[in-house]
Amino acid sequence: MFAHEFMRNALIAGTFVGLACGLVGYFVVLRAQVFAGDALSHVAFTGAIAAAVIGTEIRVGLYAATILGGIVLGLLGDRARADDVAIGSFFAWTLGLGVLFLSIFTTKSSAGNGTGGVRILFGSIFGLSTTDVRLSVALGSVASILLLAIARPLLFASLDSAVAAARGVPIRGLGLGFLGLVGLVAAQATQAVGALLLLGLLSAPAGAAHRLTTNPFRGLLLSAALAVAAVWLGLTLSYAFPTLPPSSMIVASAVGIYVLAAAARSATGASSRSWSARR
Amino acid sequence: MVESAVFDGLSWNLVSDVRELFSFPFMVHALEAGTIVATMAGVTGWFMVIRRQTFAGHTLSIIAFPGAAAASLVGLPIMVGYFGFCAFGALALAAIAGSRRSLGAESAAIGSLQALALALGFLFVSLYHGVLNSLDSLLFGTFLGITERQVAVLLIVAVVTITFVAAAARPLFFASVDADVARAGGVPVKLLGFGFLLVLGLSVAETSQITGALLVFALLVTPAATAQQLTTRPSLGVALSIAIALAVTWLGLALAYFSIYPVGFYVTSLSFALHLLVRVIRVPAVRRRAAALATEPA
Lengths: 279, 298
Hints:
The structure holds two protein chains of two kinds.
Chain A lengths: L4 H26 L3 H21 L3 H19 L7 H25 L7 H7 L7 H30 L1 H6 L4 H23 L4 H15 L3 H25 L5 H33 L1
Helix pairs in contact in A: 1-6, 1-8, 1-9, 1-10, 2-3, 2-4, 2-8, 2-9, 3-8, 5-8, 6-8, 9-10, 9-11, 10-11
Chain B lengths: L13 H9 L2 H26 L3 H21 L3 H21 L4 H26 L3 H9 L7 H20 L1 H9 L1 H6 L4 H23 L4 H15 L3 H25 L4 H33 L3
Helix pairs in contact in B: 2-7, 2-10, 2-11, 2-12, 3-4, 3-5, 3-10, 3-11, 4-5, 4-10, 7-10, 10-11, 11-12, 11-13, 12-13
């Protein structure tokens, strides 16, 4: 498995994608902003396909669109927490724009390049070049370090924004910065699992971590570890059974981990409840 | 600008343009289907926005995609896949909502469900070795191939869902606005919630056949959100929401007919533009009223 270069590339890039998604996802779930992550994944699609239409580097469109999208979502919502109706109407339109660009793109490049849209939507982790991998590693590390740097005040602001604001924590700035960071991670993950599936890596490992521990820093690490594990498991499965697409397998593994965690949690919860009832 | 006309092209004569629209059976079917879909999306969307279930609605609309892909994989009619998966999704969402956890945990569960649905959909499509074009139309919809039978099925489903919402409108509204008081008043809040999700699933399944799984949302959320900006009265709000959905669908279909660009783009852009317009007009009015209230002597 490790003898193939495409597999090594996929594993290295996937590890850093998982790391960043797990860390950022923990706060996305904590702040109940999964829907914003959902919206950003659609923005990623539109940005990438728009860049393809204009003819510039797809990555430029991708990163510009998601980071800007994150900030716009932050501005739309109250106190940097975008509310879901505003998010909904904004990204329904973004997606409409994406469809427009897709149709322009496919009519323009009718010479057999109709797969571009599908690759953006569902990822192409086995087709990453060495440059892609380097970029993914660099951005994954940058995003993780940035997140860990703001983790403490962000945690405070997420749990009790009123008290945090009273203590002088810049909650609005933090919220905007955080959504921008989510945008960065969304763009990075789009190359691996695709715009539509990155939500699975953002929400499922983090949801599992929230189920398993209430300690925030342990949860943060657990979320990252679970996301990386999901990427590895998914890649291995897809390598073993080549008909199964890698991005589907990665997301299915992440959701499987989440379901297991929820089941384990409710099993122990039930047993401890019956234990206390017996006492 | 509208350009590159398909048949006779767009002329300055509006009457002849409209007559041309109606001269093709496929266009008539598209308009009929669009009318049914928009009416239903207007009604259910209004309640969806009131109940703050936009994320759940979006997830349901995504679930339509693996449904259609699974149906084409095993050779069933696509409609069976749409309705089957959406009903199942409604059940799963009701279970998630019923477990009464924190907002973050609930949204994580919904997000995971949605990602799983997309992953399954992509898996089915790749197992099917389907033509990429069909993936595009599953995701983004097509209004060209709608048959008479499909219109009939759409009509039946629409009548069922609208009847349910109309029959349950009062208690549903009560339960949506204040669940605790409604429960104390003897309203079966949980049952209503599940019933509503089921109806939402049905209407989403129906809508996605014309707009595609990814764009359903434009018809469900944007007209309803716009209507709620304009009025707080429920009956007027529902009527407005239907009217807006109908207007953008008709206009979108007509524009798509006369140009080379997809209908999804026009429908989403028109409804979003209207939404923005209403927001821009409304905000100063609200501020003025708030200021007037503040300066009023107590």
